[in-house]
Design goal:
There is one protein chain. Helix content is 6%, strand content 59%. The strands form 3 sheets. It has a 20-stranded antiparallel β-barrel. Strands 6-7 form a two-stranded antiparallel ribbon. It has a two-stranded antiparallel sheet with strand order 12-13. The protein is mainly β and 385 residues long. The N terminus is likely disordered. It is built from 3 helices and 24 strands. A hairpin with a 2-residue loop joins strand 2 and strand 3. It folds into 2 domains: 81 residues, no CATH class; 295 residues.
Length: 385
């Protein structure tokens, strides 16, 4: 017998009521989808129904997910009701509640490629959400963010006749606790990272940039590089290359990718007493609606190199493929090594018609809550209503 939780049913009713509020009729947009599928998280597999609703009125956006299990076995990380999106966005200012994906503040020494989704499985959960605030002015920009796991950041930037100056501060208010592969638990105290950066035009489409950052109670890191960007109609390409120098006790982007699953042991890094030289090279390319690529590689003396790849592409308008792989840098100073600490996954979605689709999602990575590399997957068939 299928039993739907009262909270999930109530969320459906409330969302339909919200979507029917009398905004100006020509500016209102409401859409939703209903699908059935099989979700697997670790060794737990269950059938489920998924309802995803979206409402849009003027500059306000709302997204809600309801996950209704078809069996009694429930993965611990699966939420029945998820507020996926609550947003006010004008294009120059906004406040956005939802998943935070691939967030970099400055040029990556303070925060690089942070995603609140990294600690989630293939289905969105409430703890995978965060809040972002931004303002874009003619001479002054501001952005800030916060997450359920108490990571907070703020950035100010100013434009002086084409020269951009930036100041960034990111902190983890209460640290991290992970379960290691051997079953032991490790506690990491919260730290703060701050930095200042500069970017200035060189010639043509080339810019010079530099950044210096410091970890609370640790060392300092420096970088300097050149970037090139080209935009025409629906095509955008950017390239960057930089050199880095790190004092003992400094890891670039310390609170970014990998921190919440497999943090760098700063005590071990500091105890090494070794400064490191290194480099970073990256590329981003977008063909609007058809292709996206974010690729980077970083390497340091006496430490492993690390790839970061995130890409998707659309084939014949109906088939959408995506793939990603993220490797941890400084694997020798983490409790989970390079092989087990690498995260990878992908998805495939095929539109059978304008109103029907099938999809498959797969993710594999270290789960610090269970102390093991965990796989999660989802197969679903649905309708857009």
């Amino acid at each position: 017998m299928i039993r739907i939780r009262f909270s999930a049913a109530l969320a459906l009713i409330v969302f339909f009521l919200i979507s029917s509020v009398s905004f100006a009729q020509e500016e209102r947009l409401f859409s939703n989808s209903l699908s059935v599928g099989v979700v697997r998280i670790g060794d737990i597999k269950t059938g489920a129904m998924f309802w995803r609703g979206n409402a849009h009125a003027r500059n306000v956006y709302i997204g809600l997910d309801v996950n209704m299990l078809l069996s009694e076995r429930k993965p611990k990380t699966l939420d029945s009701v998820v507020l996926r999106r609550l947003e006010y966005d004008t294009g120059t200012e906004g406040i956005i509640y939802g998943p935070i994906s691939d967030l970099t503040l400055g040029h990556g020494m303070v925060l690089n490629s942070y995603s609140s989704l990294d600690r989630e499985g293939v289905l969105l959960g409430n703890e995978g959400m965060g809040t972002e605030i931004y303002y874009l002015g003619e001479f002054f920009d501001f952005e800030a963010f916060g997450t359920w796991t108490h990571i907070y950041g703020v950035r100010f930037s100013e434009d002086f006749y084409g020269v951009q100056l930036g100041q960034t501060f990111v902190t983890d208010a209460d640290g991290e606790r992970i379960k290691c592969l051997d079953g032991t638990e490790k506690r990491f105290d919260g730290r703060s990272v701050m930095g200042i950066d500069l970017e200035a035009p060189l010639f043509g489409d080339f810019d010079f940039y530099s950044e210096i950052a410091n970890i609370q109670g640790g060392g300092t890191g420096y970088l300097a590089g050149i970037q090139w960007a080209y935009n025409v109609v629906a095509v955008a390409i950017s390239l960057r290359a930089e050199g880095r120098y790190l004092d003992p006790g400094f890891a670039p982007g310390y609170l970014g990718w990998g921190y919440e699953m497999n943090p760098i042991d700063m005590a071990s890094l500091e105890a090494s007493g070794l400064g490191k030289r290194g480099y970073f090279a990256g590329m981003r390319a977008t063909v609007l609606g058809f292709f996206y690529l974010n690729f980077s590689y970083e390497g340091y003396e006496e430490s492993n190199g690390a790839f970061y790849v995130d890409s998707w592409f659309r084939v014949y308008g109906r088939l959408l493929l995506s793939v990603y792989m993220k490797q941890p840098s400084f694997a020798d100073y983490r409790w989970v090594g390079l092989e087990d600490g690498t995260m990878m996954g992908g998805s495939l979605r095929y539109d059978l018609s304008p109103s029907a689709f099938v999809a498959f999602l797969l993710k594999k990575g270290f789960n610090p809550k269970v102390g093991a590399v965990e796989e999660s997957s989802l197969i679903e068939f649905g309708f857009i209503l």
